[in-house]
Design brief:
Layout lengths: L1 H16 L10 E3 H4 L4 E4 L8 E5 L1 E2 L6 E2 L1 E5 L2 E3 L13 H14 L9 E2 L17 E3 L7 E6 L6 E6 L11 E3 L6 E6 L3 E9 L13 E7 L6 E3 L16
Parallel strand pairs: 1-16, 4-15
Antiparallel strand pairs: 2-3, 3-9, 5-8, 6-7, 6-13, 10-11, 10-14, 12-13, 14-15
């Protein structure tokens, strides 16, 4: 009995040592306990090698807090990088700008639309794990992926024919798509849900296999403690995922 009690105490100490409790951080993501794990799925049992591997930890590049982004040279970027007369501004001015932008629709005529993001240097010099990478998904061109907040049925974003190129999930949510100037926001650090469907046809009427459900983590700042997350990421040299 004493031996069992001793082993139980040792087990508890080990659990505490590898948990978020030891970090003394107000917010911490433990990928193991949250079920955020790199995993390979069989998409089509009738084909050899018909698999994908999801790497569910991303440390996306941060931007300044912009109420509007500009589509420039094939990518969305901060408007002050496109219009040299625009300046960074305080929060109150940015809110006022956003309101006037919605009324007039021309960001180039506004004094400022962005304010400084203190976490902008995070993962900015050499970006690693900056978007949700799904290895092998290009083999299945007819896919649908929904991104959700846990416990909420509302879709944050839906992707069609995701292929790790072009419009990838990098934590930047565009409120209005396919326009020269759009409103946008960055998702906060945290845990999110996703569901992934595959179809045989472009009309997405004939499904392949079962729906794939998975959880993933966004870690935007070195203020966010993380445990057991590095081994779940694609790039294992990510210095923001050392724990």
């Amino acid at each position: 009995m004493k031996k069992l009690s001793f082993l139980a105490i040792i087990g508890l100490l080990v659990a505490l040592a590898t948990s978020c409790i030891r970090t003394n951080e107000p917010f911490c993501i433990n990928c193991t306990s949250e079920g955020i794990q790199k995993q390979t799925y069989v998409v089509d049992t009738t084909q050899e090698g018909a698999t994908i591997t999801i790497f569910p930890v991303i440390t996306p590049r941060n931007y300044d807090f912009c109420d509007s982004f500009v589509y420039y040279k094939g990518a969305y970027t901060e408007p002050y990088r496109v219009y040299p007369n625009l300046l960074l501004c305080e929060k109150e001015a940015a809110v006022d700008t956003a309101q006037r932008y919605r009324e007039k629709g021309d960001v180039s005529q506004q004094p400022c639309v962005c304010r400084v993001n203190p976490d902008k240097k995070f993962n900015d010099t050499v970006p690693k794990n900056e978007f949700l990478y799904i290895e092998g998904i290009e083999k299945f061109p007819n896919s649908v992926m929904n991104i959700r907040t846990p416990g909420d049925t509302t879709k944050i974003r839906t992707y069609y024919n995701y292929n790790n190129k072009g419009d990838v999930f990098n934590g930047l949510i565009l409120r209005t798509e396919n326009t020269p100037i759009i409103e946008s926001k960055m998702l906060k650090s945290g845990i999110y849900d996703a569901e992934l469907f595959f179809f045989k046809d472009a009309a997405q009427q004939v499904p392949i296999g079962d729906t794939i459900w998975f959880k993933f983590a966004i870690i935007r700042s070195d203020k966010i403690a993380n445990i057991n997350c590095l081994k779940q990421a694609r790039d294992l040299n990510d210095t923001k995922l050392l724990k």
